[in-house]
Amino acid sequence: MLQNKQKNKTEMRHRDQSGKERKSKHGTLLTIIFTIISVLYMYPIVLVFINSFKKKAYISKYPFKIPTGNMYVELENYIRGIERTGLIEAFGWSMFITIGSVAAIIICCSMCAWYISRVHTKVTKAIYVMCLFAMIVPFQMEMYTLSKVANMLKLGNPWGIILIYLGFGAGLSIFMFTGFMKSIPLEIEEAAMIDGCTPIQTFFKVVLPITKPTCVTVTILQAMWIWNDYLLPSLVLDTKKWKTIPIAVQYLKGGYGSVDMGAMMGTLVLAIVPIIIFYLVCQKYIIEGVVAGAVKG
Asked: Which of 3, 202, 292, 295 qualifies as a cystine partner to 197, CB 3.0-4.6 A?
């Protein structure tokens, strides 16, 4: 009997050790695979940064070489790109549109999601279904109608495009907010109303602070989309008066397909640096907010 017990214990130890070895090998393999994928994703950005310090003639001939000697032009490409595109003004309009649109999306969509999660009627169900449907419809199906309506309502300006971004960003945002708000206990809101809070005060003082993880997640996702968007501003905005950064970069293209590659590389670096910094600072909140909305909903 004692011998059998000892044999069983040794077998269990061997199984545990083999299982741990398999898990460690599996984890190492996954680490290597995802490291390679990360390098492949980062390589184009590094390539743009390297070529932003080269002369135009060397960018096409030696795109993968480190700029040294005659190739290196210091900040000449950056200065020329700023001067030719009016990048500082475009940066200001991009900041205004992005901040305004994200603020409108957070406030309006969170209030709409709160109403949907608390009032259960056919109307709220229909609103929720329409929001989900808006996530599925491709933008190309709406391009002509959108530009026509925007011209009729005179929305071809930085203030009008904020309303358009609110409409396009509402589907995903309401979906995420609704999933999270279903987890908030009603007793908290009832206690606030007993203390004398109005529905608006209850929302801004009690509900909205609780939804901070989802607010941050929605802010990151929507800000990255709006900052990098080219198609919607090019369709709606009067580009002679207002230019966002993606539109300003296109002004480096000359006639017959000629492109000032040096200035374009410098301008692209300046365009992507702010949103990369913003993402790196806030990335830890993305998974937290998505998981909170998915699990608690």
From this structure: 202
Residue pLDDT, tens place only, 173-187: 999 899 888 888 888
CA dist., res. 115 & res. 202, Å (int): 12
| pLDDT tens digit sequence for 28-69 | 888 888 889 888 888 888 888 888 888 887 887 878 888 887
Q: Do residues 90 and 245 lie in contact, with contact meaning Cβ atoms separated by under 8 Å? A: yes
Question: Would you say the C-alpha torsion 156, 159, 164, 168 has a positive or negative sign?
Answer: positive
Q: What is the DSSP letter of 259?
A: B
Q: What is the DSSP string of 131-162?
A: HHHHHHS-GGGTHHHHHHHHHHTT--SHHHHH
- Give Cα separations from 83 to 33, 47, 256 (angstroms): 42, 23, 22
Smallest CA-to-CA distance from 161 within 153, 112, 61 is with 153
pTM of the shown model: 0.81
Q: Are 93 and 242 in contact (CB under 8 A)?
A: yes
Distances (CA, A) of 9 to 13, 19, 23, 158, 195: 6, 15, 21, 72, 63
Contact 178, 117 (CB under 8 A): yes
Question: Which amino acid is residue 116, in one-letter code?
Answer: I
Q: How far apart are CA 162 and CA 111, in angstroms?
A: 18
Q: How far is CA 164 from CA 219, 233, 236, 239, 246, in A?
A: 16, 10, 9, 17, 18
| Cα within 13 Å of Cα(293), Cβ side | 24
d(CA 214, CA 114): 13
Euclidean distance between CA atoms 241 and 239, whole angstroms: 5
